[in-house]
Write a structure and sequence with these properties.
single chain, about 350 residues, six-stranded parallel sheet, binds zinc ion
Length: about 350
């Protein structure tokens, strides 16, 4: 199998970086079409408009209706084509960014992604999640390439609720352990090839950065300010984890996350919060060193990520329901089969209960 690494063409991160968007986007086109939801529009429109005005570039703003659905993508494509847009910009959270990626894909235009939170590692990826207009999961859209540019304004991201950047740390926490499992098994990654040493190194640096800077970053964003630790964590949550998950492989933690979506009690949790517990379950599943498990539990406790089912809102342990979680996480095509040994629902069930006990 060939080794493959994929990434956005350009990644930009800095305090106040959004003020330079005109200069950065001008490399791709002269008629940008920019989408954001109401809240983010209020937060960023003046900065973006001023930046484009300085470069005398006419920018079209359009409100995103909040759901990354087929009808919404179609509506925005029509509007973008109506103004002869030559570059698409998405500003906001995951659904806005995925919608921008989809518009760009169907119109064959470059796309610039501007996350205003750092709660997952999705922004840099060549992937979007499509929902029905009612908000139910519909399908994954896989694109032939990653975004042309990702711009992270750390001043904006630091002002978002602390829970979001902490959830991003939970998503990033799994990256190295899933990469390590994938390296041993040698299975294909999301990039469609075997992992490179480069992507593995980024995944490892992601974990090291979380341990070194996670708690410091949380303390800063709780006060709405950015520090060097916040800068490091935003890079870890977004770029290191983004390249890591796509090009060094997913394995147990994300499959267990997908299984956990079966539990109604967990529906209020953010993606990264469930992934954090999924990471702990994967470590038990692979019988990782106790010291490593303790380090992961200690990190999660320090930043406020769940380490047991009670933390996640499950009051009483129902073995039938937990078996359903285990069965779902072992579904055909799930990334848990990238682990370097045969995984069964029984093994996952045992790992969930054990991880829950260790994490109390
Ligand atoms: Zn994830």
């Amino acid at each position: 199998m060939d080794k493959i690494i994929i990434s956005p063409s350009k990644y930009i991160q800095g305090e106040g970086a959004l003020a330079n968007i005109g200069k950065y986007v001008s490399a791709f086109g002269s008629k940008p079409f920019s989408i954001a939801d109401d809240f983010v529009m209020g937060l960023t429109q003046d900065t973006v408009a001023t930046s484009f005005a300085a470069d005398e570039i006419p920018v079209t703003f359009e409100r995103f209706n909040g759901e990354c659905s087929r009808p919404e993508i179609e509506r925005l494509i029509t509007l973008a084509q109506g103004v002869n847009a030559d570059v698409i910009i998405g500003i906001g959270g995951g659904k806005t960014l995925d919608t921008a990626k989809a518009i760009a894909f169907y119109t064959k235009l470059p796309v610039v992604i501007v996350p205003t939170i750092a709660s997952t590692d999705a922004p840099t990826s060549a992937l979007a999640v499509i929902y029905t207009p009612e908000g139910e999961f519909s399908e994954y859209l896989l694109f032939p390439s990653n975004p042309n540019m990702v711009i992270m304004d750390t001043a904006i991201i630091a002002k978002a609720p602390a829970r979001l950047i902490v959830a991003g740390m939970g998503d990033a926490l799994s990256t190295w352990f899933e990469a390590r499992a994938n390296m041993i098994s040698g299975k294909a990654t999301m990039a469609g090839g075997a992992p490179t040493r480069s992507a593995q190194a980024l995944a490892k640096l992601c974990y090291e950065t979380l341990l070194a800077d996670g708690l410091k970053a949380k303390a800063a964003v709780e006060n709405g300010v950015s520090t060097q630790a916040v800068e490091n964590i935003i890079e870890a949550n977004t770029y290191l984890s983004g390249i890591g998950f796509e090009s060094s492989g997913l394995a147990g933690a994300h499959a267990i996350h997908n299984g956990l979506t079966k539990l109604e009690e967990c529906h209020h949790l953010l993606h990264g919060e469930k992934v954090a517990f999924g990471t702990l379950v994967q470590l038990v599943l692979e019988n990782a060193d106790y010291e490593e498990i303790q380090t992961v539990i200690g990190f999660c406790r320090s930043v406020g990520l769940p380490t047991n089912l009670h933390d996640m809102g499950v009051k009483e342990l129902n073995h039938d329901k937990l078996m359903d979680v285990a069965i779902a996480s072992c579904a055909e095509g799930e990334t848990i089969h990238n682990m370097p040994f045969t995984v069964t629902a029984e093994k996952v069930f045992a790992a969930i209960l054990t991880a829950h006990q260790l994490g109390q």
